[in-house]
Design goal:
With 368 residues, this protein is of the alpha+beta class. It folds into 2 domains: 230 residues, Rossmann fold (3-Layer(aba) Sandwich); 118 residues, OB fold (Dihydrolipoamide Acetyltransferase, E2P) (Beta Barrel), CATH 2.40.50.140. Helices cover 24% and strands 34% of the residues. The protein contains 9 helices and 21 strands. The strands form 5 sheets. Strands 6-7-8-3-9-10 form a 6-stranded mixed beta sheet, with helices on both faces. Strands 16-20-17-18-19 form a 5-stranded antiparallel beta sheet, with no helix packed on it. Strands 2-1-4-5 form a 4-stranded antiparallel beta sheet, covered by helices on one side. Strand 13 and strand 14 form a beta hairpin. Helix 2 packs across helix 3. The longest helix has 18 residues. The mean pLDDT is 92. The chain binds adenosine-5'-triphosphate (ATP). The site of adenosine-5'-triphosphate has 11 residues, from helix 1. GO terms for molecular function: ABC-type transporter activity; ATP binding; ATP hydrolysis activity. Pfam families: ABC_tran, TOBE_2.
Length: 368
């Protein structure tokens, strides 16, 4: 049972504060992914939990006990990095056995532990090879095996598959997930790849410039981003964000993204939910490409637009639509909009619209 807690953690490198009052609780057996741009403080946080980096303020607790003054070796945490760091002169077997030898475990115990983890990672047939005779994916399997063989309290992984090619990354992603389901170790995993984060995490922790932005299950951060940063960091292609000009005309309410074009139809309840924000023009509308609905024919509630660029992706297309001076990206079935320059009609799905305060970037939490 391993439960990790960060309380008010602060870290400076010289005059630069790289972790700003971080509070986070990681439950036993949970797979947490820290996601953010390069330099946002993910690795520093991970290294602080491992004991490879000191912190300036706050507490790091493992199973309720403060560990920030303990050395790395006393924390019983394993770490896997992007660079595989295997011992080149040792075989795979010896690499995996190495951390156990340091504990003084007997030969038979070591043999059983190495073979058991090798079976889980499907590398039994590689045990006699040297690292130089392994593929990138196999090297990373060995590095993971070496980290897990002593059943550490927790597993920390820093972009462990970042150096692999796309196909191998996908395979290893599935492997890491399978392993976690089987072993259930409390895991903190760092990446800047949002697809990796969405597919692996029980909960995603999104960081920006040392500040935690949102913690939540993948579908929660995707469907209910708390601010513009999260909204535009999670999801590919990124969420469309534009000005929101809310107009009330008789019984109808519309939201225009450019003052020169008609607005998109929205239910009347929007006005009440915007709670006075609508009048001052200080709103941003966020809408994901799959919530931009395209029709070839004119229909009530649809706005005429022109297709600007079409990106065919095989399973679907991404179509850039020109709406006045703004571009809306829509996800359409392949070939649905045949040519750039074609006139089409578009509507927004109000149930998937997000509204943000323009100056703070915070979501207004409006759901229709
Ligand atoms: N030892 C150090 N001395 C000084 N500055 C450092 C040190 N380590 C990291 N930094 C700085 O701290 C900030 C956070 O770095 P960190 O490595 O935690 O970010 P990251 O989100 O993990 O980025 P990346 O994905 O590039 O590793 C960066 O601006 C980095 O340059």
């Amino acid at each position: 049972m391993t439960h990790i807690e960060l309380r008010g953690v602060q870290k400076w490198f010289g005059a630069v504060q790289v972790i700003k009052n971080l509070n986070l609780t990681i439950e036993d057996g949970e797979f947490i992914v820290m996601l953010g741009q390069s330099g946002c403080g993910k690795t520093t946080t991970l290294r602080a939990v491992a004991g490879l980096e000191t912190i300036d303020e706050g507490d790091i607790l493992i199973d309720g006990k403060p560990v920030q003054h303990l050395k790395c070796s006393a924390r019983d945490i394993a770490m896997v990095f992007q660079s595989f760091s295997l011992y080149p002169h040792m075989t795979v077997y010896e690499n995996i056995a190495f951390p156990l030898r340091a504990t003084g475990m007997g030969k038979a115990g070591i043999d059983e532990a190495v073979r058991s983890i090798a079976k889980v990672l499907r590398i039994t047939e590689l045990l006699d090879r040297k690292p130089s005779a392994l593929s990138g994916g196999d090297m990373q399997r060995v590095a993971i095996g070496r980290a897990l063989v002593r059943h550490p309290k927790a597993m920390l992984m820093d972009e462990p598959i970042g150096a692999l090619d796309a196909k191998l990354r996908e395979e290893m992603r599935a492997e890491i997930k399978r392993l976690h389901v089987k072993q259930g170790s409390t895991t903190i995993y760092v990446t800047h790849d949002q697809v990796e984060a969405m597919s692996l995490a029980d909960r995603i922790v999104i960081m920006h410039e040392g500040v935690l932005q949102q913690v939540g299950a993948p579908e929660e951060v995707y469907q209910r981003p708390q601010n513009l940063f999260v909204a535009q960091f999670v999801g590919s292609p990124v969420m469309n964000v534009s000005p929101a000009i809310v107009r009330s005309e008789g019984d109808d309410v519309s939201v225009a993204i450019d003052a020169t074009v008609p607005g998109f139809a929205f239910p009347r309840e929007l006005l009440g939910k915007l709670n006075g924000h609508a009048g001052n023009g200080a709103l941003k509308l966020g809408i994901r490409p799959e919530a931009v609905l395209v029709s070839r024919d004119a229909q009530p509630g649809y706005v005429p637009v022109v297709a600007h660029i079409i990106e065919p992706l095989g399973s679907h297309d991404i179509v850039d639509l020109k709406v006045g001076g703004e571009i809306l990206r829509a996800r359409t079935p392949s070939g649905f909009v045949p040519r750039a320059g074609d006139a089409v009609h578009v509507r927004l799905d109000p149930s998937q619209a997000h509204f943000f305060d323009q100056s703070s970037g915070e979501s207004l939490g409006v759901r229709l």
